[in-house]
Amino acid sequence: MADQNDDQYDTQDDATEDLGVAVTPRHVPKAPIEKIGGRKLKPATLMMGHGYDPALSEGSLKPPIFLTSTFAFENAAAGKRHFEGITGKRPGGADGLVYSRFNGPNQEIFEDRLGVWDEAEDALVFSSGMSAIATVLLANVNQGDVVVHSGPLYAATETLISKVLGRFGVTYLDFPAGASPDKVAEVLEQAKAQAAKNGGKVAIIYLESPANPTNALVDIEGVAAARDQVFDTDDAPPIAIDNTFLGPLWQKPLKHGADIVIYSLTKYVGGHSDLVAGGVLGSKASMDPVRAIRNTIGTICDPNTAWMLMRSLETLELRMTRAGENAEKICAFLRDHPKVEGLGYLGFISDEYQKDIYNRHCSGAGSTFSLFIKGGEAEGFAFLDALKIAKLAVSLGGTETLASLPAAMTHLSVSDERRAALGITDNLVRISIGVEDADDLISDFEQALEAV
Ligand SMILES: *Cc1c(COP(=O)(O)O)cnc(C)c1O
User: Fold this and answer.
1) Model confidence, pTM
2) Domain contains 109
3) Residue 2: pLDDT band by 50, 70, 90 thresholds?
4) Which atom of ligand 1 is least distant from the CA of 397?
5) What spatial distance separates the first Cα and last Cα of the chain, rounded to whole Å?
6) Angle at 83 between CA 33 and CA 129, to 5 degrees
7) Which residues are bridge partners to 175 per DSSP?
8) Is pLDDT at 442 greater than 50 in this prediction?
């Protein structure tokens, strides 16, 4: 839960101290154990207890689900102090529990644990990946501003930026995911000129890597270098990145120059295809405006979802590691199959620059990839309809293997020209490998390819 001992709370000159009333924060977990001797504990260990003190909940080993809309204040001064955090008079959010649209014990414990993986100063949980993305954009973008983004993005994100923000006088420019830093700098210069003309600023650089469903990687370090070349420090836009496909295990963008990391927690973090949620992580300074908008519009997730996410974090490393190993074995089988035209798998990158980005940014190839079946839509459909273990569904990152055909499903609304430009062909099957037995899955893919 919120760190009560943070220096910034003690150095702020604030009204509650003037009242001369001692405000003891209520839900203060014991200082979390992060080290034993000189050894810094690994995230997999911290997921079992970090941020939760059973003594505060009748000794309950697991955190109870706090089903309440509001929290009783210890005294009036505590109420005032907490609202100073909620309203932004005091940075870092409330240092106590107030009302369930703002915070709650389950959400706060989960946020503390999620932040461990990316070594983020601060983390926020949301009701969906899209509500997380929308809240980040609302917190950063004003009328006349320009959003610069990599392409392609998750379809709903593209709609949000181009169509919804467009209604409020916000424009955008994009560059392809694999663009060089020089190309990115060129687009940023263009955006700067466009913003000046529209009376705004370049508000945010929004990335998604790897891109869906092409798996093209964005050079985060290259984008940060281009940003620093084009902008002075005081007008430099923050770099936000949707890290859903590789995070939080295989890619840690905060280490490579990103300021804000975004997740659809519905995918690998939730990991069981049984909830919808989102997350945003970064420095306290970049999270404060996002928290303020979340407080205002209520895009926080509910306590039950936060509890399920917390349970999921305990097995995150196990699940993602197994899924990654499975994908490696399966892709090795699919690669040489006569009915396979190609694979978009990060373990088999041929492009030199993409390989370089992979080596600098990623510690694993993930378990979501594209399989190009020889032929077109008919062959793709025949393959999907013949699968026996893999389920025919969109989404990814769950314990079960899923397969879909983006051109006919998730990307059906994208125009033919844009699909062609992005390489989203009619024979591209998108597969998310789960934690089943790898050889069982290989048998399933083998028989389904035979049926094509
Ligand atoms: C699923 C997904 C989203 C949207 O998340 P929801 O939880 O469905 O709102 C955003 N970005 C990426 C890359 C996704 O895969």
Assistant:
1) 0.93
2) no
3) very low
4) 15
5) 53
6) 65
7) 150
8) yes
Pick from 396, 394, 404, 393: nearest CA to 428:
404
Residue type, 192: K
Domain of 416 in residue numbering reads as 316-450
Ligand 1 pocket check for 404: Cβ under 6 Å: no
* Both structure tokens of 19: 């009242």
CA-CA distance, 171 to 198, in Å (whole number)? Answer: 9
300 and 446 co-located in one domain: no
> Would the CB of 102 count as within 6 Å of ligand 1?
no
Mark whether 442 and 330 lie in a shared domain: yes
267 lines ligand 1 (CB under 6 A): yes
Residues 144 and 274 reside in one and the same domain: yes
Same domain as 155, residue 297: yes
The residue-averaged pLDDT of 191-203 equals 98
437 touches 425 (CB < 8 A): no
Which helix (H) or strand (E) is 378 found in, with range?
helix 377-386
DSSP code per residue over 4-37: TT-HHHHHS--HHHHTT-----S--PPPP--EET
Q: What's the CA gap between 289 and 88, in Å, rounded?
A: 9
State how far Cα 127 lies from the chain centre.
Answer: 13
Closest residue CA from atom 6 of ligand 1? 129
pLDDT of 284 reads: 94
C-beta 154 within 6 A of ligand 1:
yes
Question: How many angstroms is it from 264 CA to the middle of ligand 1?
Answer: 5
Domain check: are 280 and 424 in the same one? no
Q: What does the alpha-carbon distance between residue 41 and residue 15 come to, in Å, rounded to a whole number?
A: 39
